[in-house]
Amino acid sequence: MNTFQTPLSADEAVDKLKTGVEVTGLRVVAHINGQANAKLIGKEVPADQILEIFRPDFAIRVWDACKPAGHDIPLRIHVYEDGGATKVACRMPSTVFAAFESPALDAIGAELDALFEQILAQVPRA
């Protein structure tokens, strides 16, 4: 797991990540805001947001390489508060796909790793 702390708030980090997603040509498939969802039921929780990221052409390539790997897409970046600090966590694509022991998926994972590194680089480290 690639995890780091940032001086940004969770919302600021998510905005930077979304910019990075746009720059790489990937897409935010879903933005799950746990804090906002908890507020809907009258609960207060520390920031906890997940960005699900992918693109249809990559999905088709993953399915062609290894249909069961479809379970693990879209890929995720988790932004959360822990002990008053904002953290960003991401299981890199090559790590996600390694479990399938597929050379074709390994190649896709390496290609996506480079894009995810660009996305994560948008968020400053503490």
From TrEMBL:
SUPFAM superfamilies referenced in this protein's UniProt entry, alphabetically: TT1751-like
One Pfam family it belongs to: DUF302
Residue stretches making up the DUF302 domain: 32-89
Alphabetical list of InterPro entries matching this protein: DUF302, TT1751-like_sf
Stored PANTHER family: INNER MEMBRANE OR EXPORTED (PTHR38342:SF2), SLR5037 PROTEIN (PTHR38342)
Protein name in the entry: DUF302 domain-containing protein
Organism name: Thiohalocapsa halophila
Lineage of producing organism: Bacteria, Pseudomonadati, Pseudomonadota, Gammaproteobacteria, Chromatiales
